[in-house]
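Note to self: keep these together.
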Amino acid sequence: MERKICIITGTRADWGLLSGIAKELKSRPGVKLQIVATNMHLSPKFGNTRDEIERDGLSIDYCVPMPVENDTAAETVRAMSVCMTGMAGAFDALRPDLAVILGDRYEMLATASAALIFHIPIAHIAGGAVSFGAFDESIRHAITKMSHLHLTETEEYRRRVIQLGEQPDRVFNVGAMGVYNIRHLHLLSREELEADLKTSIPCESLFVTFHPATLDSESPAMQCRNLITALDGLEGYKVFFSYPNSDTHGNEIIEIIEAAANRNPGKYVVFKSLGQLRYLSMLRCVAAVVGNSSSGIVEVPSMGIPTLNIGMRQMGRIAARSVVNCGTSAEEIGQGLERVLSPEFREMSRTAANPYEQPDTLQKIVDVLCDTPLEGITIKRFYDLA
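Structure:
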């Protein structure tokens, strides 16, 4: 009997991790792949990244538009309600046998809530991680409790999901798809990427992604201004920014980085979205990654370059030796930049082991999605630790 597996994606970041899974599922006999696109994928402001799904040779089965101007808590909550209503329409129309959700975004909390009411089993990718600085932390664990299959990125994260009461035989340590992609994609050369982006990418470049730390008492805008101040003082480096996600206070950060680029276009370049291939190719060209994105922790170490992780947003995540944590003042960020850009640290980062790397991540994930029996799986029993 055909198994209908529905992947729900809301951002350029999660699609970069889900695209390989989608392609593999499409090729599997006995599987009908479904894709639901929502949030940033459908927004011109964030680059209409639904096009990336279609460029991958895949079809979107259902679109769930939702507001993306979420610069206040009230707007974010209203956007979640719109998403949940839209997911009711998607699940009613598609009736999948299994829903696949990645991560900890608020639109995925709305999606999981809808799937739960529809009695649709959920396979959750990247649960069990800890990151104290954003409400993503609570959302991630909430989705774990609504999910039925768990695909974690490290063994420690697997143990944590079990600690949350999930049955051990439904929790699988598979590694991180972002790292798998680095090892298996044919990346663009520096010359190809420069031609595509229509800008030079010198060896002395940085790539920066800075998201709001939604639980931090310090203003995300102030933190971003401090980052710009520190970068202003860094001579000889070109800096590439990508937009933050559509989170509370995200618009403030966009305004700050766009203003920096307008003030100094020779130093700062801003992209709404690069997409997976160009992003990973960019990592091969730059000297370091700066900001507070999970990618800096999970994926960047496998490129052999340092990460400067700013503030508390990713605090608690397992990290390689090539990741340096710093505070949010301009002085602390400046000191962090000095450290990660030192010749000694850059040399060490070339060979630093990445705890998120496994050689067969894709195969493990797809095997779980395709082969795990689903009959009766929505009846969950709490697993008590001995």
